[in-house]
Design brief:
This protein is an all-alpha fold and about 100 residues long. The chain is built from 3 helices and no strands.
């Protein structure tokens, strides 16, 4: 049950960071979260994965590299899910 709360915390924190960045930088004003709730699942899954790795490994270097791998993997998985299942592309670098 604690992982559910971790997921909600990291998802909401990611939403806040997205909103703050969009307002400060003046770019990408579209919401990148769930339609009803202010949550970004990609941050929730990434945060939980990194927290789980931090519990298993004691080396900060190992946690750093695993965090990079987990964050990149979840970003790719969620982008593929959004595009295939929901038909929404949040990041388009074709230009």
């Amino acid at each position: 049950m604690i992982w559910f709360w971790y997921f909600l915390f990291y998802s909401f924190l990611g939403f806040l960071l997205e909103v703050i960045f969009a307002r400060v930088a003046g770019v990408n004003p579209h919401r990148k979260c769930l339609r009803i709730l202010p949550l970004c699942p990609v941050y929730g899954f990434g945060g939980c994965s990194i927290a789980a790795a931090a519990g298993e490994f004691s080396s900060p270097l190992a946690i750093f590299f695993l965090g990079m791998i987990f964050a990149t993997a979840w970003e790719y998985i969620m982008a593929a899910f959004y595009e295939d299942a929901l038909g929404a592309a949040f990041c388009d670098d074709s230009d």
